[in-house]
Amino acid sequence: MSADASAPLEPAATVDPDVLRGRLEAVRAEIDEAAAAAGRDPAGITCIVITKFHPLELVDALHGLGVRDFGENRHPESRDKAARVHELGDGARLHFVGQLQRNKARQVGRYADAVHSIDRPELVEALATLDRGERGPLDATLQLSLDGDTARGGVPLDAAEALAERVLETPSLRLRGVMAVAPIGADTDRAFAEVRAVSERIRRLAPDADWISAGMSHDFRSAVSQGATHLRIGTAITGNRPSAP
Ligand SMILES: *Cc1c(COP(=O)(O)O)cnc(C)c1O
User: Fold this and answer.
1) How many alpha carbons fall within 13 Å on the CB side of residue 156?
2) CA nearest to 139, candidates 164, 174, 170, 111
3) CB-based contact 176:212 (threshold 8 Å)
4) Which CATH architecture has domain 3-238?
5) Residue of the nearest CA to atom 11 in ligand 1?
6) Which DSSP state fits 244?
7) Do 183 and 146 form a contact (C-beta atoms < 8 A)?
8) Which residues pair with 156 in a beta bridge?
9) Ligand 1 probe mutation, 58, 62, 73, most atoms within 8 A of CB
10) pTM of the model
């Protein structure tokens, strides 16, 4: 059975662990298939499971099924999820993927293992004085705005390299690559090809900044075909989200 993102799905907290396992395996199989079709090694693709709005028990269940990369989109929920993820351990990481407010940036930067949504110089400035102690620099990707509507987050494509340079000058941050959300109604292959083109330009400045965080439940196959290294998948695995807490 394949995970059809258009079919209504029960929230995971109320479903049998076997159902959760089934969805996870179905998505993993589809990632493997999409990778094979693109001539890519699936080992180079990280599936981040987005657990926003779901209870901590879902994090526990997913961790038990081998998930190690978790994603959240807003503080303070992300702080509680990060604490749980780190308690469960065994290499488990919390990725912050939502729009970040300047006045929360340092708090998020302290507990998150990666922030995918760096999209303006003022965030870099706020994070420049981040002190993570032993944990070392914070993994950071630049969120790109593919449609130029920066109200939804993201740096305009023609400003991405300048922002990358700001991150590279900031010792508390480690530039890992780029992130994007395909615009609603977009041709996703084209949108993600654009992300890959910007990624190539950024890698000329920072060769190891090779993360391409792109692809959600409805478009991850397209993202894999265009080189995505980090998929951010929620509902196809977790079921529909409960309403915002
Ligand atoms: C919620 C969210 C996702 C996951 O979306 P699904 O459609 O549930 O897979 C991915 N990326 C970001 C930035 C999100 O906020």
Assistant:
1) 4
2) 174
3) no
4) Alpha-Beta Barrel (3.20)
5) 232
6) P
7) yes
8) 145
9) 73
10) 0.93
pLDDT tens-digit series, residues 159-206? 999 999 999 999 999 999 999 999 999 999 999 999 999 999 999 999
- The rounded Å distance from CA 115 to ligand 1 centre is 14
Residues framing ligand 1 (Cβ under 6 A): 50, 52, 73, 97-98, 181, 216-217, 232-236
Dist. CA 218 → ligand 1 center (Å):
10
- Tokens at residue 3, please? 């995970």
**Residue 21 DSSP SS3:** helix
SS3 173: strand
Residues 6+ apart with CB under 8 A from 209: 164, 175, 176, 177, 178, 202, 203
Q: How far is the CA of 82 from the centre of ligand 1 (A)?
A: 17
Pick the atom of ligand 1 nearest to 241's CA: 8
Mind listing the pLDDT tens digit for each residue in 135-159?
Answer: 999 999 999 999 988 788 999 999 9
- The protein residue whose alpha carbon is closest to atom 5 in ligand 1 is 234
